[in-house]
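Q: what does this look like with 2-phosphoglycolic acid bound?
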Amino acid sequence: MKKNVRKAIIAGNWKMNKTRPEAKALLTELAPMVADVKDVEVIACVPFTNLETAIEATKGTNIKIGAQNCHFEKSGAFTGEISADMLVEMGVEYVVLGHSERRQYFGETDETVNKRTKAALAAGLKPIVCVGELLWERECDITEEVIARQIKLDFYSLTSEDIKKCVIAYEPVWAIGTGKTATAEQAQEVCAFIRGCLAKQYGEDTAEAVTIQYGGSMNAGNAAELVSKVDVDGGLIGGASLKAPDFTAIVKAAENG
Ligand code: PGA
């Protein structure tokens, strides 16, 4: 029950959207809208091709920039991949890892999410690690088993210090891009369960220090209720992060949450 020890984080996950001029326009519109926000970390996780533009466009603002994946090796014969060091060198601070779309469409496994998380931490990036159950897993009443397994595997061999640098995004797969948001109660239930898993593994103090976001059709209309829950420390926002006024409304809701 120590929400006040954690900084709320609202991160936009732009997915495969926006050309460079469009990225510049969106961030230029957003920056003044969130300029007076103090208690919420505002992040835009943009496509690799937009990173340089985004970093440039947000210089001197309170918007941080993240990538949407990184590889676990430092360098080598991995065509099409980007290393954590390459991102750090550009000025990137955050990286989304294990997003359900990566797991679903690109064969991402808990093992590679674990390797990527360790590589990101070693390079100095802050990972936003996504976990969440499929609809049929929820219907089979195994949500907690699925989440507990992901937390154990994705964070395997991380120390307390490591885990405190991570953000966890609880994203029920059935709520992503579907317009079907989890109820605030469902989000709270699973975010609290995640915190309980962390407490068992790392102790209460560490568990209380970790920011746990909700993600999945979060928007200007439902954000306030979701972030009012004690274990929901913000959100990972897909569709609604592509419009500055909508994203700003979510950030403001988190400020009051
Ligand atoms: P959505 O996406 O907000 O469009 O549902 C969330 C996410 O995939 O992170």
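The pocket of 2-phosphoglycolic acid is lined by residues 13, 171, 176-177, 215-218, 236-240 (CB under 6 Å). The domain at 8-256 is CATH 3.20.20.70 (TIM Barrel).
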